[in-house]
Amino acid sequence: MDSSLSSSSRSQGPRLHPGMISSILLVMRYRPEHKIETHEKIVKDASRRVRAEGLNGAAVAAVMRDAGLTHGGFYKHFASKDELLIESLKEGFQDIIASLVHAAEQSPPGEAWKTIVKTYLRPEMSEHPEHGCPLATLGPELARVDKRMKPQIVTELVNYKSRMVPFMPGRRTADKERAFFAIFSTMIGAVALGRLLPDPVRDRVLANAQDFLLRGF
Amino acid sequence: MDSSLSSSSRSQGPRLHPGMISSILLVMRYRPEHKIETHEKIVKDASRRVRAEGLNGAAVAAVMRDAGLTHGGFYKHFASKDELLIESLKEGFQDIIASLVHAAEQSPPGEAWKTIVKTYLRPEMSEHPEHGCPLATLGPELARVDKRMKPQIVTELVNYKSRMVPFMPGRRTADKERAFFAIFSTMIGAVALGRLLPDPVRDRVLANAQDFLLRGF
DNA sequence: TCCATAGGATGATACGTATCATCTTATAAG
DNA sequence: CTTATAAGATGATACGTATCATCCTATGGA
Description:
Two copies of one chain form a homodimer. Chain A is built from eleven helices and no strands. In chain A, helix 5 (about 80-105) packs across helix 6 and helix 10 packs antiparallel against helix 11. Helix content of chain A is about 65%, strand content about 0%. Chain A has a domain at about 80-215: Tetracycline Repressor, domain 2. In chain A, about 35% of the residues are buried. The interface between A and B is large, with 38 and 38 residues.
C-alpha cells in the first residue's frame, strides 16, 4: 500500500514522509467510519420520526436518544436542525424510491406502473408511515417550510419524479410525466385520506384508489 | 313579549316574577351576543391560521391577538386548545363545503361534479390555503392528532362526504361514494403536490389533475 | 348614581425545545 | 504507556407555548 513511502530515510529535503502525513492528515482518534456511522444512524432515526410524527416530531433530544446519544453532540454532526431535516427527508425519499423501483423492476415493463400503484397503496404502507412516502406523510407541511429549505425539497421531488417517470404509462416522456403527476396525486391523496379513517374504511379507500388508477389509464 | 309577566303584583306566593327572573337568569352585563361574537371571531381567525400554518400555527397568544384580545381570556371561551382546534376545523370544513356546494348548485345536475373539480383545483384555491380545504392543508397532520379528537374529525369528514356525494357522478349511491373518494383523493393530492412546487409548475399540476379527472369519469 | 359580575387583561408557572459553552473520555498514533 | 484530539456528555440559556390564578373594568339593572 504505502510501500513507496515507507523508507523516509531516502527522501531529501522537506518532502512529505509517513510521519508527517499521519500527523497532518491521519490524526483520527476514532475509526474513520465511526462518525459516519453514527451520523447515518441519527439521520435514519430522524427520518423515521419525521415520517411518523411530522416535521416537529424529530426533536433534537428525541432523535439523539434514539441513536443512544445525548443532545449535546448534535452540533458535531449538523450545523442546524434544518440540516438534519433536509438529510432525513432525502433519506425518506430514497427509502420509498428504492421500494418502488425494486417492485417495478421485477415486473414486465408495460406493467411496472401498475406494480408501483399496488405497492404504494398497500395497507401496510399506510400502517407504517415511518417507512412510507414523505409526500403522503408530510406533503402539506413541506409546503410551509422555511424558504431556504424549499429548493432542496424541490430537488428531492424532481429526483423522485425522474426515478418514477420511466415506469409510468404513456408513449412520450411528456405523457409519462403527466401520468406521474396524476397517479401520484391520487395515491398521495388516498393515503392521506385513508389515514384519517378507521382501519376497514381506510383499506377501502386505498383499494378504491387502486381500482380507479388501474382502470383509468 | 314578556307582557304576561309584567305585572308582578298579580302573582301570589313564591312564583317567578320578573325581578327574580332577571336576577337569576338575565344577569348579563354585556349584550348577550357579545361573547358569541368574539368567540366566533376567535374561531374564524384560528381556522385561517390553522389552514395557513398548520395545526400548531394557531398558538393561543397569536389567535387572541388576531382577535384584538390578549391570551388571558382564552379559557373563558374554550376548555382547552384542543377544543379550539376542533371548532376551527369544523369552521374550515364548513367553509369549503359552502364554496363547493354553492358552485355545484348553479350548474346543471349532471355537470355539478365537474364544477366541483374545477372549483377545488383553481390556482387561487392553492394560493390561499387559509380559505381552502382543510384536508389539502393538514390532512396528514390530522391523522396524527390525539386519539380523543379523532372521532370528531371523522365526523367532519363524514359530513363533508355526505354533502359532496349528491353531486358526484354515478348512478347508485355506492358508485357516487366511490367517485367521491377517487376524486377527492386526486384533488387533495394534487393540491398538496402542487404547493410544493414553484408557481407555474404548480398550475400545471392542478390543470393536469383536472384533465385527468374530467376525462376519467 | 351605584353595584354585581362576566369578559378581558396581567402576570406567573411549567414545560418543551434549539442552541451553545464547557467538560469528559475513548482511542489511534507515537 | 502516554498523549493529542475529536466524539460525546453535562449543563446553561433563551425562547415559545399552554395553562391558570388573580386583577381590572365595562355595563345592564336597581
